[in-house]
Amino acid sequence: MSTHQIRYEVSERIATITLDRPEVMNAFGGTMREDLLACLERATEDSEVRCLIITGAGKAFCAGGDVASMAELQARDDTSVLNQRMQGAAQVVSFIRAIPKPVIAAVNGAAAGAGMNLALACDLRYAAASAKFSEAFIRIGLVPDWGGHFLLTELVGPARALELIMSGERIDAAEAERLGIVNACFSDADFAAEVRGKARIFAAAPAEAIAAIKQGVRRAMQGSLQDTLDYEQEAQRRVFLSADAREGMLAFLEKRAPRFGQQS
Fold first, then answer.
1. What is the pLDDT of residues 34-77, one digit of tens each?
2. Which of 4, 132, 179, 208 lies 20 to 30 Å (CA to CA) from residue 58?
3. How far apart are CA 56 and CA 124, in angstroms?
4. Do 80 and 129 fall within a single domain?
5. Global confidence as pTM
6. Comparing C-alpha atoms, which of 169, 168, 174, 163 is closest to residue 142?
C-alpha cells in the first residue's frame, strides 16, 4: 500500500510508514494526514504486524505543515480548511497513542513543528546524529498543534517546554536525548540498522503483554498509584493465561528462547 506521498511496507512483522515528499522535507500537504491515518489503521488491523516505524524520505523526517499552502488560506481568511487539517492531525495523534502496538519515530533528519509533534506522539523516538528538533510554530506567529503542548510537557516538564515552544529553539539529537525527548541517537551511518534492530526486539515480544504495557504506562501518567495497582491486577490476570505467557514460562523452564506469536 502506498500513495504518492506516503509509502507503506511490511517486513519481518514490522510496518514501515515513510513520509515521502523529500523535495519539501516531507512537509504535510494534500491528503497526507488522512493517508497516514489509513496506514496506521491498516497496520493495526494486520495481525502479522507487531511493530510500526514512522520515518521520512530523504534527508528530513518532517518539516511540519506546508507554509505556502497555509499562507494561501490566510490570504483568503479561510479557517475551514485549517480546522479540517487540525482535526486530521488530532486523529493521527490520538490513534498512535491508542494503538496496541509499539510505534517508533525514526527521526532521520529535521523534525520541525508538526513533524516534531508527530515524533513526540510515538511511543519511542530514535534519532540520527544529524537530526534537529524544533517547535517552530512561533517563528511564523502560530502555536503548536498535533498535541505539542501536552506531548512536549509530558516529556520535559512545563518550564523547558515553555522555553522550547516560545523560543522556537532548534536542538540537535544529542540535546534531545539529554532532555529525554529521544530514547537514543545513533550515527547517520548506523541509524537505519540500529532502529531496525530495536523494532525487531519489539516485534518479537509477546503482543498482548506489549499492548497492556503501553496502556499501563499511559494510564499511569494520568492516574494515581492506586489506579495503576488496580490496572496491573486486571492486566496481569488477563495476560497470565495467554498463549504467549504459557510459551514464555515453558521456554524459561526449558532454558531456551521463547517463540512468541508462533505457537500452534
1. 999 999 999 999 999 999 999 999 999 999 988 888 888 888 88
2. 179
3. 16
4. yes
5. 0.93
6. 168
